[in-house]
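Consider the following input, taken from an annotated entry for Protein translocase subunit SecE (candidate division WOR-1 bacterium RIFOXYC2_FULL_41_25).
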Amino acid sequence: MKNIFEQLVKFIKETRAETRKVVWPDRRYVMVATVIILVLVFITGAYISLIDFIFSKVFRLLLR
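Applying the prediction step yields:
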């Protein structure tokens, strides 16, 4: 049991040490990246909706 506790403490210390080494992005970069991702998601959703609409109309005409 003691060995597991020591390993856990070691893991937490190493994790904190590695987290301090991380170069975190600044707020502006995160905001710009978020906007770009949201725009791309919207464009992709609109494209898929358009293709779905076209295919549904074509299949309705074919099955009529």
